[in-house]
Design goal:
23% of the residues are buried. The radius of gyration is 15 Å and the shape is globular. It contains four helices and five strands, in the order ααβαββββα. 34% of the residues lie in helices and 40% in strands.
Length: 145
């Protein structure tokens, strides 16, 4: 198993757990995946906080908006790992409820950057955008209060 395969074997189950939990209203596993040491950034489909002081509350807010996660799958498009940094490009397909509405599917293209912190890989950047207009409609619901 090469370094990238080992990275994916370690990280994909953790990502699946964290994203499923977030889409069921629990941000704690996502907090555990992310670095709390700046710089950390999100250029998200709905929000774009910069710095842990902005990123952390955004995760909490997202968790309050999601529930009833019926599926959360990541299709790895590309990944690579170096000594201190790794990246993961994926197509994310999720079906969950936003603000108590009927669960609906949406698809994002995402890029996630990881930094090695001691023995662990921690997320330091995420960029995601809707893959089509149907997904964009779902994502826009997140920005409405």
């Amino acid at each position: 198993m090469n370094d990238t395969q080992q990275f994916l074997a370690e990280m994909m189950p953790r990502i699946h757990e964290a994203e499923t939990a977030l889409h069921n209203g629990d941000a704690k596993p996502r907090f555990a995946m992310w670095s709390h040491t700046d710089p950390v950034t999100v250029y998200g489909a709905a929000f774009s906080p910069i710095g842990w002081a902005e990123v952390a509350p955004m995760f909490d807010e997202l968790a309050t908006r999601f529930s009833d996660c019926r599926s959360c799958e990541w299709e790895v498009v590309a990944a690579d790992v170096g000594q201190d940094f790794a990246y993961l490009l994926a197509i994310e397909r999720t079906t969950a409820s936003i603000d108590g509405a009927e669960a609906a599917s949406y698809t994002l293209r995402s890029t996630t950057i990881f930094r090695r912190e001691g023995p662990e890989w921690k997320v330091v950047h995420r960029h995601a955008d809707p893959i089509n207009e149907t997904s964009a409609v779902s994502v826009r619901r997140l920005t409405k209060n």
